[in-house]
Fold this protein.
Amino acid sequence: MRILVTGGAGYIGSHTVRHLLANGHEVTVFDNLEYGHRQAVPAEALVVGNLRDIDHLDQLLVVNRIEAVIHFAALASVGESVTNPAKYYTNNLIYSLQLLDRCRRNGIQKFVFSSSCATYGEPTQVPIPEDAPQNPVNPYGHTKLAFERALADYAAAHPFGFCTLRYFNAAGAAADGSIGEDHTPETHLVPLAFRAAQGKIPHVTVFGTDYPTPDGTCVRDYVHVDDLATAHALALDKIAPGSKLAYNVGLGRGYSVREVIAAVEAVTGLKVPVKEGPRRAGDPPVLVASADKIRHELGWSAKYDSLRAILDTAWRWHQSHPNGFGE
Ligand code: UFG
């Protein structure tokens, strides 16, 4: 298939691009390199551009005879979305709607969307099934949910199918250590714990120790980035005109912030200095996926089925790239 991947030089995007190329697809990566990395994708696949430049995207859809779009390009810091919602609504919603409409006009029939467990808000049921109520508790989650709704309306009105993948917490790196997680600024727990273990930052702050969880810290479902990548390829195969698909992508097992830090210490053999701090705005206490639907309907399974296996790959990346893609 000829596939346009927006945000394809980012963390999950670049691992997905690699998987698609290995499976014989023709991939055009569209990324403004603000958060993505040039080195994370093959040079010949990369087109540098901004999502807001809809005419540039339109031209690529036509000239490259695109058949499917995988839309990663988005801002993804929950905390920042709380303090700067306009930035999130503009990038994640307005520009995404523009892209969706150009896809419709150009007859693109398959669309895969990067959504998030953040669309569930504070779940009433754990593990969370796909048909659970979606009541986000932060602007990031609101923007993702609003776009999910737009996709459903488009698929009802036009000859168009989509698959929404609701990622839980992406972690890990390519098995060969060549690409991995490198955000600036880094806000995610796993890479920060590795950096603290390596002495590159003085400590990790635990955001909240008074949650209603066994050890008082937030519980998340960590899934390997390469297992997220395979979910996209399976989704593309499954989409048909009129498809309105939504799948959680997680392992169905939760780990607390303290458990993640202990696991990073076990993997590295190094101490992770920790400070306890207040809760971070917009963080639900527990987010754990029910992954039954994607397993049954798409035949997806996780190659990395334990936190330890996931963190082993991340540690390889952090050791071989102490400055991320900067080195
Ligand atoms: N945390 C800390 N200290 C830190 C960073 C994070 O205690 O320095 C905690 C958070 O409070 C949270 C957990 O570690 O409980 C994981 O936090 P991350 O920032 O690593 O990940 P999030 O769960 O906030 O975010 C991830 C994705 C988002 C997605 C979100 C859904 O990165 O894109 O899950 O909730 F939207």
Q: What stands out?
A: The domain at 174-220+252-326 is CATH 3.90.25.10 (UDP-galactose 4-epimerase; domain 1). The CA atoms of residues 121 and 135 lie 5 Å apart. Residues 76, 78, 116-118, 140, 169, 187-189, 192, 204-207, 218, 220, 257, 280, 283, 287 surround UFG (CB under 6 Å).
